[in-house]
Amino acid sequence: MLNVGLVGFGLSGRYLQAPFFQISSYFNLKSIITSQPIPQELFPGVGKASDFQELLDDTTIEVVSICSPSNTHYDYAKKALNAGKHVLLEKPMTATAAEAKELLDLAKAKNKVLYVFHNRRFDSDLMTVKRVIESGMLGEILSFEAHFDRYKPILNPKKWKEAATPANGILYDLGAHLIDQSIYLFGKPQSVTGEVFTQRENSEIDDAFDLRLDYGKLKVTLKSSLMVKDQGPKYVINGTIGSFTKYGMDVQEDHLVSGYWPHMSGFGVEPKANNGTVKTNLAGLEMEGKIETFAGNWGYLFEDFASVIINGTEPIIKIEQVIDQLEIIESIKAK
Fold first, then answer.
1. pTM of the model
2. Are 63 and 6 in contact (CB under 8 A)?
3. Is residue 330 part of a domain?
4. CA distances (Å), 64 to each of 34, 68, 116, in order?
5. Are residues 55 and 125 in the same domain?
6. Are 190 and 201 spatial neighbours (Cβ–Cβ below 8 Å)?
7. Which residues form a coiled coil (predicted)?
8. 171: three-class secondary structure by DSSP
């Protein structure tokens, strides 16, 4: 098993990563950098590291997972790679594509795996959308619209999340997921237009965006806001012979925060009311019905990360795709 040092024990470290490391047959969660107590009933034997250097100096730790504030990602990842560690890096990977390229080159030079925590490639809804598109039941895809909306009018009590620092704001936070999903499904777009803006009172960062990715015949629209109380569909996809609409969000984060772990029955399963609707024409027959949503499973990410380290397999989440994503973010922020 690969010994893991975890940097940060907030939402991402405590709930989105630590449980998966804990139940994995590939990883052993050894140490966590945190000021919070580590619940031993959930993470028996997991120690507390005093600082980042302690993790780097521990020769038994082979993997460092970085869940610290966004503006620390580049520096921490660079130090971990130079210390000979494999790195799992929370998104956004870095503030700039240039920093991401530098880390990729360093990982190759050190013969270490650098992997980005784009867990939402393994959301219930995105996995279902991918299968619907690949099935051909919609024909050639002409338009794809995705939303990642929340209702959070009150500023985040975590000051670093609201600070106007590099790699902060909704485009780096939620936008990174939506752009990554689009690149995963359709590749790098021919061009991108859009804007980011601020809607919450007293906010110092962008908290809404509207992007348009041009793939030629296919047009992709990505939207997000922290001021949407009554949310519409998460995905609307139109093709030459059919349409697919999906409401509701992946429930893994809610499950994890509530204490529901990945190995428990029903984990990641959305309510049936959230099943998507398809209208299409198959062999000349008009059809309308429901598409059952796959169970979400971020565990696939950890399995893939382990396989890349142990077996040298090709990663599902490629750093080159993340670099494309960061170039898009930078181009929009520069406007």
1. 0.95
2. no
3. no
4. 14, 12, 12
5. no
6. no
7. none
8. helix
